[in-house]
């Protein structure tokens, strides 16, 4: 299969610039398979080293607020209802009712059919996280498995964007990737990116989920990260949260290194979102350290860094309450979900 | 040839596991004469925090067990103590500096306390609960329920309390389905940790009893102000500023039992002190 006629020139522009005009499956495969292999032992040792940093007092207070500011508060259950989404939005806008200085989260992340309820519930609080408002992110493209035809995936995406989603979390076709059909994965990302275009010509932000738990090796994670960035991803994201292992520190470090390399090569900044399995503030702070040490502190803004989590915010709020009041708090003082 | 002795380092008991203190601190346990006996972990406020998390996680299962089952589990503690009597007698006589006969009498008394409270497990509700007369076709029942996580300071007197005082404080707390974070006798903590080793191999679920060896003065303020602790037993806190502890406990509406001299005597009131009364209405059958 060739990609002589990319669906959308603009999103595939990165690949054309790097690989030249004759963007073929072969050129893509040569490029990706030619990437240097990952030193797995070194990677895990580096991640373990970064996890030992001690973050205390004012740095800890800053880190806790940053975790909340960059969190995608998520509910992705089959049992989701408009009511559940409304209570999630209420929590996104006012994470801690006992402390009005608590920042808002970056976005709420829901299934596509729940987007209208999220938008309605947010009302005037809907908008750019940089302005202290809350975005709506929707998972699309037959999340979480990605096992549907391209038409369905594109319709899923367009539907979510039309309903008002600011960000689309898509899954790659892991089956195609693992069997070496890089061109197919590439084409799909390009096509979904095009489907993120709104009527006014702007694009919804595209987060590409690699589902690293299914990619098995670090080399594959590196190739998939590079492939997603080439195809036009605004963010690369580790996992759906439905597969174990989900986000781990070494995988996040590796993806951040790809983002750093891409930044050095082109000057472009691509975002990163670890998702799934990050439940404690302590864990989350380790991720912040990894970001600061790998790509730099300027990545710690909602436009370049997100946590995908549902229970993490509660633990962060307990830690915040402890810092504020001087005594330990308990689960009775935060929301149930 | 003389042999190098291998003194044991006693660790904490949190959530059914035996961790060292996160602070890495230990302190020396000595005989009355100041002779070295063993090292014990010196728990920090963060160990107390972890213990409360473990205790909270254990509440649902322990409070949800049937009263009869809880009674059996507590009786089993008494059985296991009886089986390891020699070790406890040895530890008590070394750390408290009492005769073997006195140590043996304390182990007997401790076993009796466990048995006494085990018996109450499926009986205290009949005394503390009630069927209330109401003017209507309803049953109106008041039943005692466990309050949740209780923090306790065991009696601290150097002689006669190390095992008995712990039993007299812990047994009434857990019998109704509460879980406990207990600071045992600081000077003679060995039998508390040995008891924890008994518990770990008994039927008591991990997290129901958590033992933090160390200083009550250091940990009690953190436990008293902890928002996820429901009640405070200050039995052995007479020598520290326990009025201040009561004040900070009041911030989160904790039940507080005041310090007692010596070892608290077995009493139904120690069980009901850590229960809440729930009253339910139910329609009477029309038949």
UniProtKB/TrEMBL annotation, chain A:
<dbReference type="GO" id="GO:0016052">
    <property type="term" value="P:carbohydrate catabolic process"/>
</dbReference>
<dbReference type="GO" id="GO:0004139">
    <property type="term" value="F:deoxyribose-phosphate aldolase activity"/>
</dbReference>
<comment type="similarity">
    <text>Belongs to the DeoC/FbaB aldolase family. DeoC type 2 subfamily.</text>
</comment>
<keyword id="KW-0704">Schiff base</keyword>
<protein>
    <recommendedName>
        <fullName>Deoxyribose-phosphate aldolase</fullName>
        <ecNumber>4.1.2.4</ecNumber>
    </recommendedName>
</protein>
<dbReference type="InterPro" id="IPR002915">
    <property type="entry name" value="DeoC/FbaB/LacD_aldolase"/>
</dbReference>
<dbReference type="InterPro" id="IPR011343">
    <property type="entry name" value="DeoC"/>
</dbReference>
<dbReference type="GO" id="GO:0005737">
    <property type="term" value="C:cytoplasm"/>
</dbReference>
<keyword id="KW-0456">Lyase</keyword>
<dbReference type="InterPro" id="IPR013785">
    <property type="entry name" value="Aldolase_TIM"/>
</dbReference>
<dbReference type="Pfam" id="PF01791">
    <property type="entry name" value="DeoC"/>
</dbReference>
<comment type="pathway">
    <text>Carbohydrate degradation; 2-deoxy-D-ribose 1-phosphate degradation; D-glyceraldehyde 3-phosphate and acetaldehyde from 2-deoxy-alpha-D-ribose 1-phosphate: step 2/2.</text>
</comment>
<dbReference type="GO" id="GO:0009264">
    <property type="term" value="P:deoxyribonucleotide catabolic process"/>
</dbReference>
UniProtKB/TrEMBL annotation, chain B:
<protein>
    <submittedName>
        <fullName>Aldehyde dehydrogenase family protein</fullName>
    </submittedName>
</protein>
<dbReference type="InterPro" id="IPR016162">
    <property type="entry name" value="Ald_DH_N"/>
</dbReference>
<keyword id="KW-0560">Oxidoreductase</keyword>
<dbReference type="InterPro" id="IPR016161">
    <property type="entry name" value="Ald_DH/histidinol_DH"/>
</dbReference>
<dbReference type="Pfam" id="PF00171">
    <property type="entry name" value="Aldedh"/>
</dbReference>
<feature type="domain" description="Aldehyde dehydrogenase">
    <location>
        <begin position="22"/>
        <end position="258"/>
    </location>
</feature>
<dbReference type="InterPro" id="IPR015590">
    <property type="entry name" value="Aldehyde_DH_dom"/>
</dbReference>
<dbReference type="GO" id="GO:0016491">
    <property type="term" value="F:oxidoreductase activity"/>
</dbReference>
């Amino acid at each position: 299969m060739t990609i002589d006629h990319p669906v959308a020139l603009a999103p595939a522009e990165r690949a054309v610039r790097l690989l030249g005009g004759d963007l073929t499956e072969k050129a893509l495969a040569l490029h990706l398979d030619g990437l240097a292999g990952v030193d797995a032992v070194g990677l895990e040792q580096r991640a373990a080293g970064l996890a030992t940093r001690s973050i205390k007092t004012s740095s800890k207070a800053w880190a806790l607020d940053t975790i909340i500011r960059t969190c995608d508060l998520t509910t992705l259950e089959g049992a989701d209802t408009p009511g559940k989404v409304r209570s999630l939005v209420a929590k996104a806008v006012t994470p801690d009712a006992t402390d009005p200085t608590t920042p808002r989260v970056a976005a709420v992340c829901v299934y596509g059919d729940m987007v209208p309820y999220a938008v309605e519930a947010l009302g005037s609080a809907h908008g750019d996280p940089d302005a202290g408002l809350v975005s709506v992110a929707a998972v699309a493209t037959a999340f979480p498995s990605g096992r549907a035809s391209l038409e369905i995936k594109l319709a899923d995406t367009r539907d979510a964007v039309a309903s008002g989603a600011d960000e689309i979390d898509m899954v790659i076709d892991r089956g195609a990737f693992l069997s070496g059909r890089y061109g197919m994965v590439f084409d799909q990302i390009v096509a979904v990116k095009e489907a993120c275009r709104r009527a006014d010509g702007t694009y919804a932000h595209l987060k590409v989920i690699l589902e690293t738990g299914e990619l098995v090796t670090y080399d594959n994670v590196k190739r998939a990260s590079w492939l997603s960035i080439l195809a036009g991803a605004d963010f690369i994201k580790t996992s759906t949260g439905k597969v174990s292992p989900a986000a781990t520190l070494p995988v996040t470090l590796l993806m951040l290194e790809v983002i750093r390399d891409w930044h050095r090569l082109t000057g472009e900044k691509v975002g990163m979102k670890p998702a799934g399995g990050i439940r404690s503030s302590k864990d989350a702070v380790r991720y912040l350290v990894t970001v600061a040490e790998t790509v730099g502190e300027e990545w710690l803004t909602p436009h370049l860094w997100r946590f995908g989590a549902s229970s993490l915010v509660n633990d962060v709020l307990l830690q915040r309450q402890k810092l504020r009041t001087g005594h330990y708090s308990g689960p009775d003082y935060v929301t149930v979900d | 040839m003389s042999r190098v002795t291998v003194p044991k380092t006693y660790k904490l008991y949190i959530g059914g596991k035996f961790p060292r203190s996160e602070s890495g601190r230990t302190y020396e346990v000595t005989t009355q004469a100041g002779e070295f006996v063993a090292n014990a972990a010196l728990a920090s406020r963060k160990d107390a925090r972890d213990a409360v998390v473990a205790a909270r996680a254990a509440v649902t299962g322990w409070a949800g067990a049937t009263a009869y089952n809880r009674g059996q589990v507590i009786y089993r503690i008494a059985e296991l103590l009886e089986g390891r009597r020699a070790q406890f007698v040895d530890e008590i006589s070394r750390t408290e500096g009492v005769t073997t006969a006195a140590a043996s009498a304390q182990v007997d008394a401790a076993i009796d306390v466990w048995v006494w409270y085990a018996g109450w497990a499926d009986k205290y509700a009949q005394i503390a609960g009630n069927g209330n007369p109401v003017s209507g076709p309803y049953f109106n029942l008041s039943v005692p329920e466990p309050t949740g996580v209780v923090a306790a300071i065991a009696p601290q007197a150097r002689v006669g309390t190390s095992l008995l005082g712990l039993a007299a404080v812990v047994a009434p707390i857990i019998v109704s389905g509460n879980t406990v974070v207990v600071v045992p006798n600081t000077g003679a903590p060995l039998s508390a940790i040995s008891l924890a080793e008994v518990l770990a191999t008994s039927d008591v679920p991990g997290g129901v009893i958590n033992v933090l060896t160390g200083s009550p003065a250091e940990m009690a303020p953190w436990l008293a102000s902890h928002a996820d602790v429901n009640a405070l037993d200050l039995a052995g806190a007479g020598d520290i500023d326990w009025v201040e502890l009561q004040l900070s406990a009041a911030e989160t509406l904790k039940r507080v039992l005041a310090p007692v001299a010596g070892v608290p005597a077995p009493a139904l009131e120690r069980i009901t002190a850590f229960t809440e009364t729930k009253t339910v209405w139910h329609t009477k059958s029309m038949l």
